[in-house]
Structures are given as C-alpha cells and as structure tokens.
C-alpha cells in the first residue's frame, strides 16, 4: 500500500493504478468518504482484493466505523463487493449530445465560472445553497462546504446558476466543463419551490453555458428512483447510458 498523506483522519490511502482518498462523510464524522479517482470510468480496474482490504484496514485504523464511496462504474463496484461492500445507492447515468441549440426561456443569475482555491462565492450564497441541498437531499446525502468546493474544482471550469422565489434563492445547479465534455455536478430545488419550473430553468441555463464552451456532450447522474429528475433530464434530451453507477458502503471493525 502507498500511504501518501494523513491529516485528521483524511488523506490519500492508495496511489497506484488509481488514487483513493478518504475524509469524513459530510455531517457524519464516524463514516469515511472514500473518493476513488476515475470512478465513473466503465473500464476502471481497481487493485486486487488483498490491496482493497488494506484500504478497509487503514480506514478502520483511522477510527471510522463505516465507509461509503463516491459513485462507481460496475467493474469497480464489483471489485469492492469482493471485500464486503454493499450497494447503498444506485444512480442512472445519462448523456446529452450537444448538437441542437438550447433555448433559455428564463435567464438566471450565474456566479463566475472559476474559483481559485482561496476564493469562494459570498458566504451568504454558499450558506443558502447548502441549506437548499440539505432540504432537497436530506441529512444523509447532503453536501457540506468541502463537498461543495470539490464539486467546483472537479472540472476545469465551473459555473453556478441560481433561481429565486419570494426574494430568496430557491434552487441551484453546478455545471462544469473539462475539455469538450460538460457535466451537471449538482442540481437541487428547495422542496417549497419544486414543480414550478425552477429545475427546468436551471438545466436550460447550464446546458446553454456548457454548449457555449464548445462541448460535444453533457453527462449527469441521478438516483434511479428519482422519477422527477429523470423526467426533467429526458425532457431536455438526456438519454440513459447502458450502465449505472453505484455508491458502495460497508461497516468497519475497530
């Protein structure tokens, strides 16, 4: 095992064919968040089971009592199942070819497209976005500020669009671009303002921005049971790919 860094129960626990990092899960310090580089890649090969077991042992040694992964393509998910991981969440992966022009019926406020590591949007906006995220996804799947920052830096360029209702932010989307590929990283509308067209407007604005960057396609994922989100994405030209993503989880012995 290549242990590169450890700091406050966080760091790189493996650096080889891929990179595996760990840190506490948002709002659940006893659960490790295992982030595996290239985890969406359907051809990603993880190390053999004995090495994967050292990942588990390291997280246990760091004091975690459970671990949950970033979304994984089937080959990687199957590899982790060999060392006791179970599927915690199933995600549909969808793609939209960026060929037809996107018509934006309702232009929305956007925030600058790239944040240096030392800079973030205004604290009040970050707080509002995280409050919406918590309300939309629940305590168990919500973002914290670090997850939010990671989403902004997961792609070469990023942009946030926000919708407003009754004088406050009602929803947001984080869109990203790397090379010629677009990504919808996170989309949420506060439950008080759902089914009013905000989600559709957020998707339209993010797709128009992605298209303006010369992208060939845009990718998004959402929980397989989230019929409302699936309907919105399919309405805007997204088509499910032939494989799903899985968030994997297991208990640890201390």
What features would you describe in this structure?
This protein has 254 residues and is α+β, with helices and mostly antiparallel strands. It has two domains: 11-91 and 245-251, Aminopeptidase (3-Layer(aba) Sandwich), CATH 3.40.630; 99-215, Aminopeptidase (3-Layer(aba) Sandwich). It has helices at 49-61, 74-81, 123-137, 145-152, 198-212, 227-235, and strands spanning 11-15, 19-25, 28-36, 66-69, 86-97, 109-111, 157-165, 168-178, 181-189, 217-223, 239-251. Strands 1-2-3-4-11-5-10-9-8-7-6 form an eleven-stranded mixed beta sheet. A hairpin with a 2-residue loop joins strand 8 and strand 9 (181-189). The longest helix is centred in the middle third of the chain and has 15 residues, at 123-137.
Question: Would you kindly provide a brief summary of this structure?
Answer:
The protein is α+β, with helices and mostly antiparallel strands. Helix content is 27%, strand content 35%.
Which features does this protein show?
35% strand; 254 residues; globular; Aminopeptidase; eleven-stranded mixed β-sheet; alpha+beta; 11 strands; 27% helix
CATH superfamily of the largest domain: Gcn5-related N-acetyltransferase (GNAT)
- First-residue to last-residue Cα separation: 20 Å
- Helix percent band: 25-40%
> Count the helices. How many?
6
**CATH topology value of the largest domain:** Aminopeptidase
Shape: globular
Number of strands: 11
**Uncertain runs with pLDDT below 50, 5 residues or more?**
none
State the order of secondary-structure elements, H for helix, E for strand.
EEEHEHEEHHEEEHEHE
Q: How is the largest sheet built, in terms of strand order?
A: 1-2-3-4-11-5-10-9-8-7-6
Give the CATH level 1 class of the largest domain: Alpha Beta
Name given to the CATH architecture of the largest domain: 3-Layer(aba) Sandwich
């Amino acid at each position: 095992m290549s242990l590169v860094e450890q700091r406050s129960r966080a760091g790189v626990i493996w650096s080889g064919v891929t990179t595996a990092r760990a840190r506490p899960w948002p709002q659940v310090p006893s659960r490790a968040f295992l982030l595996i580089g290239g985890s969406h890649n359907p051809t990603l090969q993880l190390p053999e089971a004995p090495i994967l077991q050292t990942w588990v042992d390291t997280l246990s040694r760091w004091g975690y009592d459970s671990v949950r992964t970033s979304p994984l393509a089937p080959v990687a998910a199957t590899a982790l199942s060999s060392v006791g991981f179970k599927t915690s969440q199933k995600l549909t992966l969808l793609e939209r070819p960026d060929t037809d022009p996107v018509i934006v019926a309702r232009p929305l406020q956007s925030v600058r497209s790239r944040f240096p590591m030392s800079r973030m949007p205004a604290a009040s906006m970050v707080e509002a976005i995280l409050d919406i995220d918590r309300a939309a996804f629940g305590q168990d799947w919500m973002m914290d500020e670090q997850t939010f920052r990671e989403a902004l830096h997961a792609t070469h360029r990023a942009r946030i669009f926000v919708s407003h209702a009754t004088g406050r932010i009602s929803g947001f989307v984080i869109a990203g671009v790397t090379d010629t590929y677009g990504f919808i990283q996170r989309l949420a509308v506060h439950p008080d303002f759902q089914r009013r067209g905000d989600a559709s407007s957020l998707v339209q604005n993010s797709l128009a921005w992605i298209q303006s960057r010369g992208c060939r396609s845009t990718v998004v994922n959402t929980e397989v049971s989230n019929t409302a989100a699936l309907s919105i994405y399919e309405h805007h030209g997204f088509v499910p790919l032939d494989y799903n993503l899985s968030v994997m989880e297991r208990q640890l012995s201390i």
